[in-house]
């Protein structure tokens, strides 16, 4: 974000300031090899082929349409052939969304791998490692995936060769377009900025598609997949929470899940650690209007995570592609790391689930819908804010220290 420059640009116009570097094409040292990476059309073909080949495991859910009329499918991974529900008698409902940001290809690839692994495991011997993992997964979870939420942005990236492109067809950053501190700090009202949030909350059909899916079905866990580093964030990331230290209702549960997931992952792949923490503690910038803040803040699901599944932490060139994605030959290894972490996260959710579930459903039964917090209305008086600023600063510093953070280089680009 370039605060003073942005204000100047808004007053003087684009002819003075020119196009923001954020959304301009850069000289790339690495580009995707589409013999290995999927492009926007092969993503959809692959999903279709996998669903068609599945006997009972993969099912299309609701199909949505992008601004330019491309398909945005949702797919359910749900056993329909007799695996009983887990120890708590109810499978945990999880929604995983990838491809919100056009330039982040690797999360989309991971979701496709998840679908193809599920398909292979459907026919694997029950005592094989894959068979056992899938049996555990299916007895504890119903997974729904939206593999590519922003197909127009991806199509633009492919036709323009601008691998820095993050927005949708209208240049809107979908992860700033949701109705939670919309237009707050970390979002931009300048269409030339990569964090352009749109004209109003949920102005974009892709964001509305996600909202509709969340309200159409009932989910327990929302996972927003990104890339650019190896971190997992808990809500909230918005400007108000950045200043006030506001925390979601199930913050303690999510911290427990996070700690368990980090421990499980690092016990398996210690040299590919993830960092984790509340977004407003871990990131160097606030991000207002994000999907996971919206889902958790509006209580569309009790638990929400944003997972950055890959990052090139030694990146030095001007290009964008290799900040967010591995070269094609390294894609399988990157997906294996992401796979281990996502399994660790789901295992952690399952281990800590019972207490969250009971509290959540009790609350859902008793809470009138209009009793939810209005983010835009949440404004502490300035005097109180000023008095509390020093105390909060100290608390935030102490909280930073209290979260498990293996050392990783600082992130210098916008990832979420
Ligand atoms: Zn992202």
TrEMBL record:
A Pfam family recorded for this sequence: Peptidase_M14
Signal peptide boundaries: 1-20
Key words of the record: Membrane, Signal, Transmembrane, Transmembrane helix
Residue spans crossing the bilayer: 380-398
Active-site residues annotated for this sequence: 308 (proton donor/acceptor)
Obligatory cofactor(s): Zn(2+)
Name this polypeptide is given: Peptidase M14 domain-containing protein
Organism for this UniProt entry: Monosiga brevicollis (Choanoflagellate)
């Amino acid at each position: 974000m370039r605060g003073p420059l942005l204000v100047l640009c808004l007053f003087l116009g684009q002819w003075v300031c020119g196009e923001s570097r954020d959304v301009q094409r850069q000289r790339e040292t690495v580009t995707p090899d589409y013999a290995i990476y999927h492009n926007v059309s092969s993503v959809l073909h692959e999903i279709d082929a996998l669903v068609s080949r599945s006997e009972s495991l993969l099912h299309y859910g609701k199909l949505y349409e992008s601004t330019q009329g491309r398909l945005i499918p949702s797919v359910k991974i749900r056993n329909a052939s007799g695996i009983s529900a887990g120890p708590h008698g109810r499978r945990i409902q999880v929604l995983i969304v990838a491809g919100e940001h056009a330039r982040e290809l690797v999360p989309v690839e991971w979701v496709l791998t998840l679908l193809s692994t599920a398909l292979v495991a459907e026919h694997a011997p029950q005592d094989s490692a894959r068979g056992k993992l899938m049996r555990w997964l299916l007895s504890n979870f119903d997974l729904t995936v939206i593999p590519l939420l922003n197909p127009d942005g991806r199509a633009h990236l492919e036709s323009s060769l601008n691998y820095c492109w993050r927005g949708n067809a209208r240049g809107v950053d979908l992860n700033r377009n949701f109705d939670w501190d919309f237009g707050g700090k970390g979002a931009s009202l300048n269409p030339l900025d990569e964090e352009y949030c749109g004209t109003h909350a949920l102005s974009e059909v892709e964001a509305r598609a996600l909202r509709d899916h969340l309200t159409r079905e009932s989910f327990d866990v929302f996972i927003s997949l990104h890339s650019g580093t190896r971190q997992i964030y808990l809500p909230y990331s918005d400007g108000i929470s950045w200043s006030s230290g506001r925390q979601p209702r199930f913050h303690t549960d999510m911290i427990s899940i996070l700690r368990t997931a980090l421990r499980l992952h690092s016990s398996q792949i210690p040299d590919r650690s993830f960092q984790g923490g509340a977004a407003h503690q871990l990131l160097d910038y606030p991000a207002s209007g994000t999907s996971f803040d919206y889902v958790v803040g509006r209580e569309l699901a009790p638990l929400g995570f944003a997972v950055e599944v890959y990052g090139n932490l030694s990146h030095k060139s001007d290009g964008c592609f290799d900040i967010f994605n591995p070269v094609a030959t390294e894609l399988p290894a990157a997906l294996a790391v992401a796979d281990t972490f996502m399994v660790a996260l789901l295992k952690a959710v399952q281990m800590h689930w019972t207490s969250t579930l009971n509290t959540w459903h009790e609350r859902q039964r008793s809470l009138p819908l209009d009793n939810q917090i209005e983010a835009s209305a949440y404004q502490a008086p300035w005097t109180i804010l000023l008095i509390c600023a020093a105390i909060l600063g100290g608390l935030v510093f102490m909280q930073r220290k209290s979260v498990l953070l293996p050392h990783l280089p600082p992130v210098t680009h916008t990832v979420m």
